[in-house]
Amino acid sequence: MIKHIQDTVALHNGVNMPGLGLGVFKVEEGPVLVQAVKSAIAHGYRSIDTAAIYENERSVGQGIHEAMKESSLSREHLFVTSKVWNADLGYEQTLAAYEASLEKLGLDYLDLYLIHWPVKGKYKEAWRALEALYREGRVKAIGVSNFQIHHLEDLMSEAQIKPMINQVEFHPRLTQKELLRFTKEQGIQLEAWSPLMQGELLDNPLLLELAAKYGKSVAQIILRWDIQHCVITIPKSTKEHRIIENAAIFDFEMSQEDMERIDGLNQNRRVGPDPDNFNF
Q1: pTM assigned to the model
Q2: Are 49 and 22 in contact (CB under 8 A)?
Q3: Where is each NADP-dependent oxidoreductase domain found (predicted)?
Q4: Catalytic residue of the set 45, 54, 123, 134
């Protein structure tokens, strides 16, 4: 379990990934996003997560480059993730999509590249492309997003390299215990998107009770719950005070009893699409 914003988790290939990062889902290109990336890096974040489908890679890249220019940080200090979208899940298309993401970000490599969704009949060809990029040293780590256990088993039945990350919707209403157990057994690190359930949990009575008990906000309670489950998390915010608040979760620890009470909020309920029933 990480104990500081810049602490890292060792992936199964030995690459160290920060345990807390900034997500930028649904943030439009422009100065607000550029400033959010710069603020996050200035306040200690070292991981930024974007995707081709977000259509904001240029602003993410601009924020990264301006932050490096204004500080002593070099590219190696940062961990940048992007994802290949469903329309590009062929072998050659995935290779081209990777190059397009690099060009928009203005980077020479990515630290992590993910298959965004498990599109039936397509993700294995895309994975072959990710394996090629990884072998060539073009990307530090490769993984998937929104894969359920049966998707992972199917992919690994033919893959030469096991995914290092599985980034999924994960929050107290969707605890995914079986998937968490399976990925731990396989040495695949789970990463949470939408950890705050897009704000739906902020007035939950139990979480409000625990926030009062620990002197924290509900968002901090949820993010701490992620960290204590050893799940990497990437909360989204464009507001500097929220970016700071989301990282102020390393000065307390919840009891096992309170962790289990939060686990008990599970309803297997998603705010995003179901990976098995998503109209791609």
Answers
A1: 0.97
A2: yes
A3: 34-266
A4: 54
Structure tokens at 8: 């890292």
Active site residue 54: yes
Annotated binding site: 116
Binding site as annotated, residues for substrate: 116
User: Tokens in use for 197?
Assistant: 């359930």
Distance of CA 220 to the CA centre of its chain: 17
pLDDT in tens, the chain (280 residues): 899 999 999 999 999 999 999 999 989 999 999 999 999 999 999 999 999 999 999 999 999 999 999 998 999 999 999 999 999 999 999 999 999 999 999 999 999 999 999 999 999 999 999 999 999 999 999 999 999 999 999 999 999 999 999 999 999 999 999 999 999 999 999 999 999 999 899 999 999 999 999 999 999 999 999 999 999 999 999 999 999 999 999 999 999 999 999 999 999 999 999 999 876 6
